Amino acid sequence: MLGLEKLHIEPIGAESLGTRSFCFYVKTPDLAILIDPSVALAPRRDRLPPHIKELAAAKLTRELIQERAKKCDVLVISHFHFDHYTTSLSQVYQWTNETIATQLYSGKIILAKDRSNRSSINYSQKRRSYYLYKREDCEIRPADSQSFMFKQTTIRCSEPVWHGPEGSRFGWVIMTAIEYNDEKILHASDVQGPMSEYTLSLIEEEKPNLLLIGGPPTYLRQVPKEDLMSGIANLKKLASQIDMIIVDHHLLRDAKWKDHLEDVYKTAKKNGNHIYCVAEFMGLSPMLLEVQRKELYQKMPLNENFHNRLFKMDSEILAMIESEKKVLKEKLSS
Prior knowledge:
Layout: E1 2-3, E2 8-14, E3 22-28, E4 31-35, H1 52-69, E5 74-77, H2 98-105, E6 109-112, H3 123-133, E7 139-142, E8 147-150, E9 153-157, E10 161-162, E11 172-173, E12 176-180, E13 183-188, H4 197-206, E14 210-214, H5 225-239, E15 244-248, H6 257-260, H7 262-270, E16 274-276, H8 278-281, H9 293-299, H10 306-311, H11 315-333
Parallel strand pairs: 4-5, 5-6, 6-7, 13-14, 14-15, 15-16
Antiparallel strand pairs: 1-2, 2-3, 3-4, 8-9, 9-12, 10-11, 12-13
């Protein structure tokens, strides 16, 4: 397990590990926490559905989420997009269903994005959150702007901040600070840099030792260039102030992600700070499977009925995915 002296951080899922996720297992001397316990895959990239290698990576991440959840007292959900939130609905590209959701949530304390305030949750996320808030097998605590004490561990959730730029159609998320004595991490998943100057100010006020942050979605042509540049510029400001930053998620859906961070790396180095993606933090090479989807199909074509059979949970297809998962697991552990 990797981390600070008292706050131990174990990345569970991220784009640099082959899936859409930004899940972390955090252990303090008196509490175990799982942040954003979910995984998903892009339904389409380059007009193609997920490759079998992506499905295997997502299955491996799902299994690790379920395994770590057994050790946890608290789960945190920053918002209700499926790469951060495990629904009880059957979702093949999430490897989830009611059984999986029950195993994940049962008996836990859930600190979740509040669905009751219309001014800080959009229709899509509110609809998805219904399936969590109706559960009776766990303790759900709306977390927006709230602080929670567990012995000597403090979990502090921010006010709702924009999912990217101010006015984003994707709505709001909450950031999560976890503090034990003089050590602090801050999880800021989909702030995308951050793009918002106000979100930047909240991060600067927290002064975390370690920042876990989602980078801007440079792979999306429809995102205005000025928003992308704001995200990178604000990340550069943070690189001058924070000891260690792990940046991943949307940014690593772009093959040229590192080029966008050239000035960020220079700023961090100048100030004696460090920047990593999740895989690098773990001592691994980034594995950008979504970016490589077209190439994967060229190297290893799938039968045209592959996904139809997958949706029917065909045993032969599941066995093929399981075989790919074992290969990937060995690769990541070697």
